Amino acid sequence: MGKVKNDWQDTDCVLSLFAPTLRKARRAYEEFVAEGLKQKKGADLTGGGLVRSAGGWAALAALRRKGLRMKADERILGSSDFVERVLKKAEEELSERTRLQQQGLTLDSLMKKVAAEYDVSLKGLKSGTKERTAARARTVLCCLAVRKLRLSCAEVARVLGLSPSTVSKAVLRGEKIMREDDMVGKMLPEP
Predict the structure, then answer these.
(1) How many domains is the chain built from?
(2) 3-state secondary structure of 144
(3) pLDDT tens-place string over residues 76-97
């Protein structure tokens, strides 16, 4: 609900998916959870991830007797193949973030690169101006900071003086703008 702050939780970003204002978002989120609680538990959503993916304890035991193993993670609902894909993608993203950090890419250095590429001042990036070039640059910055540096919308919002929901929306628009402006390879250091 966004009433308790945890370093590991980006409630502003999640609530921004439900409504533009915090009050309306909380109400919509509450309704969403209440509707979910009314639904019956499906067999596909009960039991541990590995057991569920295998089709129950008996099926899991049969697989193990045959010497077969399944990839599982209790945090991820889905088949063994799906779990493997999710874990591989998460590992790749962590690897890229680590590489970028080792190469010295921070939010500050990224801001300087984006400002230089779009020929706007750092002040212009932080001003909230609606001027087209500055707004595009800010949108690209938000996208790269969240998608590549894996910063939370709230972290980026604090630095830029925006709301987390504004950053969240900018991230979605930023991917399209980066393709249009051919910025994907220009902003990040090569591996």
Answers:
(1) 1
(2) helix
(3) 666 667 777 877 777 777 777 7
